[in-house]
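Hi all, posting the design record for the shared folder.

TITLE: backbone redesign
STEP: 1 of 1
STRUCTURE INPUT:
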């Protein structure tokens, strides 16, 4: 019997490394009877996942997802494997989780949902950096850390409790340190009950945490682009190339000697206390053991740009101004 395996969260806990690695192994996995969705981009796989769940997907996406799974089962595939951490939001409600159970019956497959869980202090810190550098947020770290949108984002019982309670669906949780020790793709394959032996060496890894000056510069860039209404004209995804150029400048000018760490002691302890009980409940349910992963600690490494050394501040402001002015004048190539 074919097993439908969904790696479905938590959002960006793995930095996108699971999807990247599985996609790189497409041919080797196919030879081992593991079928991946068509396409290589996270967006294409997300569309397939939403099509399976019928969660806001267009009829064409639902039909294409059904065709993919049906062809896998008819071919006798060992597993149909899909990675999209964005699916975690689609599985929070009992109704959506029940869709998976009905899917299992309809296609005659087993269903296993694999999730990556990570202590929230390090997770929120990394997710904040990702959102800022993706031009998805210009909020302060304190505001981001204390305003979870959606409310279940960092609570694993709220995120995955509905899946755990659904008959006919197997939930497996991978502790984040496993991704670091054995590799993102290997950890998920093992959790799915699939043998990763014989695959090429891992090439994907969770993205490193950027430096605080780059994060501060990206927040400033975001605010200036918003003020000039350039998101509407160019589109957020296209403008991310500007952040790449800021990162190149940060490396060339040695803006950074450390990585971003947004927490002060009081805020970190408050967040630890907020999620401690939920983590213990989740761990006991899915692993039968106490929560194993300790909360991250570190010294605050945030940046108020005005506090930078004058030469560094000048370089940061000049770099941001050059990008924004070039875009406004049409002299900046976004290709």
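Okay, here is what came back for every position:
SEQUENCE:
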């Amino acid at each position: 019997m074919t097993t439908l395996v969904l790696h479905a969260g938590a959002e960006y806990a793995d930095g996108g490394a699971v999807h990247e690695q599985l996609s790189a192994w497409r041919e080797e996995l196919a030879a081992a009877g593991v079928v991946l969705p068509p396409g290589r981009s996270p967006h294409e796989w997300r569309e397939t996942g939403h099509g399976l769940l019928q969660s806001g997907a267009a009829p064409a996406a639902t039909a294409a997802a059904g065709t993919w799974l049906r062809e896998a089962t008819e071919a006798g595939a060992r597993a149909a494997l899909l990675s999209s951490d964005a699916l975690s939001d689609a599985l929070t409600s009992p109704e959506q989780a029940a869709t998976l159970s009905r899917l299992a019956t309809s296609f005659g497959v087993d269903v296993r949902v694999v999730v990556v869980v990570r202590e929230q202090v390090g997770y929120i810190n990394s997710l904040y950096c990702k959102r800022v550098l993706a031009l998805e947020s210009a909020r302060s770290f304190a505001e981001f850390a204390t305003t979870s949108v959606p409310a279940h984002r960092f609570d694993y019982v709220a995120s995955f409790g509905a899946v755990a309670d659904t008959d006919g669906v197997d939930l497996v949780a991978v502790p984040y340190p496993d991704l670091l020790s054995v590799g993102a793709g290997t950890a998920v394959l093992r959790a799915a009950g699939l043998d990763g032996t014989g695959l090429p060496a891992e090439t994907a890894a969770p993205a490193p945490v950027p430096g605080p000056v780059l994060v501060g510069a990206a927040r400033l860039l975001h605010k200036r682009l918003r003020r000039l209404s350039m998101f509407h004209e160019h589109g957020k995804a296209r403008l991310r190339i500007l952040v790449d150029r800021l990162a190149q400048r940060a490396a060339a000018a040695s803006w950074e000697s450390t990585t971003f760490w947004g927490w002060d002691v009081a805020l970190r302890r408050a967040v630890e206390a907020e999620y401690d009980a939920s983590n213990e409940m989740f761990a006991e349910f899915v692993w039968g053991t106490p929560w194993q992963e300790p909360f991250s600690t570190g010294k605050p490494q945030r940046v108020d740009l005005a506090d930078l050394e004058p030469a560094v501040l000048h370089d940061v402001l000049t770099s941001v101004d050059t990008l924004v002015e070039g875009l406004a004048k049409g002299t900046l190539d976004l290709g």
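COMMENT: The longest helix spans residues 265-286.
Let me know if anyone wants the other runs.
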